């Protein structure tokens, strides 16, 4: 019971921090991660908030799990709903920076927070995010996970850019930094079962997501 409580706390702390990271990066105006380029582009083109589009996109991605025979966990459902809620909350709370130095501070903190948050929610071991499951499900059909991940991210990035999402140095910084950050932080944040068997370490998703 205590172990499950710890896993749940870590999961929800991670999802809240992930929403904070999204809000900081979007507010910086220096470029979003690929999925949030898409969410912002959809928001600008069709209305609704970025957080609402995070939820809608996550739910639609989960529909693609059905033919892939992926099974969601409580962490998956929580990921779909709560990251968007927290992103909108922090976008509302955070002041919009004007000075370039403050915008860069937002961006750097966003990437660091995103890496820590990814380690938290994956390390809780309560189910992959919807985009993780899509990636691993396609890869399980005999494709390279790196090729699948790159293909998905380039597709959502290009679509989001065409819709008006912000692409910039922040997009590149996130892409370069999130993998190494998660690689360092995930082992420390992974909650192992009492049996001592290592918990699974799914491939981290970029945003959120």
Could you please describe the fold and organization of this structure?
The protein has nine helices and no strands. The protein is mainly alpha-helical. The radius of gyration is 16 Å and the shape is globular. The relative contact order is 0.23. The mean pLDDT is 88.
N-C termini distance: 27 Å
Query: Helicity level, as a percent range?
Result: over 70%
Radius of gyration: 16 Å
Query: Regions with pLDDT < 50 over 5+ consecutive residues?
Result: none
Overall 3D geometry? Answer: globular
Give the amount of beta strand, in percent.
under 5%
Number of strands: 0
- Helix/strand order: HHHHHHHHH
Q: Largest sheet, described in full? A: none
Structural class comes to: mainly alpha
Number of helices: 9
The average pLDDT value, as a whole number, equals 88
How do the helices and strands line up, and which of them pair or pack?
Elements: H1 2-28, H2 34-46, H3 50-63, H4 65-68, H5 74-93, H6 100-123, H7 130-139, H8 145-163, H9 169-189
